[in-house]
Amino acid sequence: MEAEPIQARTGLVAILGLPNVGKSTLLNQILGVRLVAVSPRPQTTRNRILGVKNLPPSPQDGGDSLPVQIVFIDTPGAQQGTSALRRYMREESLAAAGDCDVALVLIDASERDQQAPARMGQGEAAAMRAMLDAVKAPRLLLLNKIDQVAKTQLLPIIEAWNQAGGWEEIIPISASSGDGVDRVLQAVVARLPVGPRLFPEDMVTDRAERFLAAELIREQLFRQLGEEVPYATAVTVESFEERAGRGDVVIGAVIHVERESQRPIVLGKGGRRIKEIGARARQAISELLACPVHLRLFVRVTPGWSREQRGIREMGYE
Ligand code: GDP
Ligand code: MG
Fold this sequence. Notes:
By secondary structure, this protein is α/β, with parallel strands linked by helices. The protein folds into two domains: 7-196, Rossmann fold (3-Layer(aba) Sandwich); 209-314, GMP Synthetase, Chain A, domain 3, CATH 3.30.300. Helix content is 33%, strand content 23%. Strands 1, 2, 3, 4, 5, 6 and 7 form a seven-stranded mixed β-sheet that branches. Helix 2 (84-98) packs across helix 3 (122-134). The model has no long low-confidence stretch (mean pLDDT 86). Bound molecules: guanosine-5'-diphosphate (GDP) and magnesium ion. Magnesium ion binds at residues 23-24, 44-45.
């Protein structure tokens, strides 16, 4: 006879919002590990990524004393633009929006044009609307980056978003400091259905370690390369060898650029840039995998990978 599956409060929670509002920062803060790439530049996140948070039963969950498993979906966010990569990113976000039990919608409360719905630019408002139209689940509005907002400013922002309606709760947070994040978790748990756990309890993400390694290399490209170059790059992990005897991992990865002229930018003077990218990425991957990592990076010119459907599929965006 098979054992009854353990019941839990569990469901899918989509993290939605415009680029650069702090969606990935929030997921990392909740999970307590650096799982997804975060950078000050928009469009750092390209794929949907699941992050699984398990919690013990708590008195706040309606008194049913069930364990909690929240499956967060980090998304690239509401996208404008028509390239194959942008289209792919938009579809990833809409799929998550349409397929969740609770939607967390972030805005950047430190940005003047996000402090009221009426202040948003046309393109951004339209991208937000398309995303929200796809959501059938309850919506929580998270006003993020309140560490950058004066206390006296906060109330009018809450009021402006409240008047627009459509939110079950409005919660001010700072994803980077963790301020308000407990309230978000409570609000989410209260709205989750009861059912069997979706994932094993020790699983933090649905992404293979190879993908996560590529993600952390890409994070360094976004942090260390200026201007448009990061947007012209993709990373593929070509080899990933766990050496059981030594307890370490050897990773070989390719950084793809679109044009020959971008190669020297990634390499830097005397190879110093690629060395720094490799050193930082290696450290982050090593922390994530909790073992020593050896990282070999190569730069390859793969013309037009972001414009063509075939190109983005080969880079793992499908
Ligand atoms: P995403 O594109 O929505 O996933 O945004 P990211 O998580 O990549 O964050 C974009 C930028 O905002 C990064 O530079 C973050 O460090 C910064 N950021 C995120 N949350 C906060 C916050 O609560 N306060 C401040 N001051 N910065 C934040
Ligand atoms: Mg992101």
